[in-house]
């Protein structure tokens, strides 16, 4: 856990060298204002919140905020089946599906050969990482 002041100082001293401080500060603000303690964000939502279309710099800011000791974000994988139902996937399950060429459906086990068009990277943010 890190205090908000410590996190802001860390961002201003470390991320500013990389030109990522404004991105990081906007992402921290987004997480703190989220109604849920653990919110899930897509790239599109994060890009809109930061006000950029520069996905490379956004990804660098996310990587900074998900690194140790901060760990504000964690990367997750979502699979959206043909009925629009969302499932979280473990990295290992996704790697196995990539190797096998098909993903067993999380509920009924039927193989989905078109899974790669239905898996999305999302980021879970944890407000508890930042103490008052």
Tell me about this structure.
The protein is of the alpha+beta class. The chain folds into 2 domains: 2-75; 77-119, no CATH class. It is 42% helix and 24% strand. It has 5 helices and 8 strands, in the order βααβααββαββββ. It has helices spanning 4-15, 21-33, 43-50, 55-66, 91-100; strands spanning 2-3, 38-41, 73-80, 86-89, 103-104, 111-112, 119-126, 130-131. Strands 2-7-3-4 form a 4-stranded antiparallel β-sheet. A two-stranded parallel sheet has the order 1-8. A two-stranded antiparallel sheet has the order 5-6. A hairpin with a 5-residue loop joins β3 (73-80) and β4. α2 (21-33) packs across α4 (55-66). The longest helix is centred in the N-terminal third of the chain and has 13 residues, at 21-33. The protein is elongated and about 50 Å long.
Order of helices and strands: EHHEHHEEHEEEE
CA radius of gyration is 17 Å
Mean pLDDT: 94
Give the helix/strand class: alpha+beta
Tally of separate helices: 5
Helix content range? 40-55%
Largest beta-sheet characterization:
4 strands, antiparallel
Strand content: 15-25%
Primary descriptors:
single chain, 132 residues, alpha+beta, four-stranded antiparallel β-sheet, two-stranded parallel sheet, 5 helices, 8 strands, 42% helix, 24% strand, elongated
């Amino acid at each position: 856990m890190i205090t908000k002041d410590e996190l802001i100082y860390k961002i201003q001293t470390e991320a500013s060298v990389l030109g990522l401080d404004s991105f990081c500060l906007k992402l921290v603000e987004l997480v703190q204002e989220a109604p849920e303690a653990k919110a899930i964000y897509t790239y599109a939502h994060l890009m809109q919140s930061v006000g950029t279309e520069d996905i490379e710099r956004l990804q660098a800011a996310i990587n900074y905020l998900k690194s140790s000791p901060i760990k504000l974000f964690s990367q997750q994988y979502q699979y959206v089946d043909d009925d629009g139902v969302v499932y979280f996937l473990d990295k290992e399950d996704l790697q196995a599906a990539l190797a096998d060429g098909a993903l067993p459906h999380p509920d009924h086990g039927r193989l989905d050969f078109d899974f790669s068009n239905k898996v999305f990277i999302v980021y879970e943010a944890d407000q508890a990482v930042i103490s008052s």
